[in-house]
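Re: Re: ligand-bound prediction request (bumping)

Still looking for help on this. To restate: I need the protein modeled with uridine-5'-diphosphate bound, output as structure tokens. Inputs repeated here so nobody has to scroll up.
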Amino acid sequence: MSLIESYAAVAGEDVIDHLRQLGNLLKGIKVVHVNSTRVGGGVAEILDKLVPLKGELGLDVRWEVIQGDGKFYECTKKFHNALQGKSSPISDSLLTAYENTNVQNAEELRPILEEADIVVIHDPQPLPLLKSCPNRKGKWIWRCHIDLSHPYRPVWKYLRKFAVDYDASIFSLADFAQPLPHTQYLIPPSIDPLSDKNKDLDEDFVKNIRQVFNIRQDTPMMLQVSRFDRFKDPVGVIQAYRLVKKFAPSLQLVLAGGGATDDPEGEAVFAEVNAEAGGDPDIRILRLDPDAHVIINALQRTADIVMQKSVREGFGLTVTEGMWKGKPVIGGNAGGIRLQVINHHTGFLVSTPEGAALRARYLLQRPEKLHEMGRKAKEFVRQNFLNTRNIREYLTLMVALIYGGEDRIELNGRS
Ligand code: UDP
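Reply:
Sorry for the wait, this slipped through. Here it is.
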């Protein structure tokens, strides 16, 4: 079975047909994606599937990775922090390393980039490549995966100089868009339903995961999966749990976060969470390895309610993941959680531990309501947040850019 056919079983034949129709309009066009790493991080994970899928749809797709040295990555890490709001200037010597690295990479990539019909540049690392491709034929898109809602202005002003030359840009949410002289497309993130984190699991395996982590079977469990970060409000989750436990004494809480970390703040938050838990035997605080995808998948499946009580959230993939497992999500009324949790339908939006507790208690007392909301949550993800939707939107954007000058575009793929 081809990769694309394996998605038909999950996303539906009609979704795949639609992709094929769009693919027909784009047959043979040369597309190049450029980022700065082939493994690790969300962008690489997305491209890993996106590139072969577009290839199966008839596009001539390449994925190129730029190379840099320590100074280059130091600079781009600082970009990342500054664009997400950290006020820290970047030295001229780092900026020079950044620009020179792009010039050097362009030496090798220029023939491919200038020939391409569409170039998609991911994040700030390869952004200046366009300046080194004066004879480019195609359209260039900047795909920014970063939360740009409150950037540190001097750094954004510097990067914006490179972004203005693009034909279009893509942001994940309306809140992240910035004034730019071209059309900005909003394409939310997505999950891969066939990845280890999200694929269907054997029932026995799911059941067994409770045993592995010493979680009682057949009594309710609330779960929050997230880094130990104050913005994710793990302490607020424990406070909510305590309030619910007064009414549901057998309730258990699982907080699953990253394993040993060199992030000093992560350690401090982990200590705060342990202090708040105060040795309660019904609270499990798990530190998982970064590649514990199947374990997280099983925990999400065995949970009764998934929490994501963030006070700030870019998108919140843990919300999407929980909903995909058929769980209603009680989520903080913040950022991208609002796109996913449709209050009273796919879950509840809350602002306080008391609010979270009220909703959790409501759901635990009404199992049929809990299951109904869980079903709606899964369907909502199927319709809106699978990677097949992400590809459809990319292809639609490419059709718009390539055929934009024409009076009529036959979207059913006939010419
Ligand atoms: N995650 C993980 N292990 C952990 C904590 C989180 O694999 O210990 C995963 C989680 O399943 C999700 C991603 O990391 O896929 C977190 O994305 P999200 O958008 O929820 O939050 P971020 O950490 O990017 O703020």
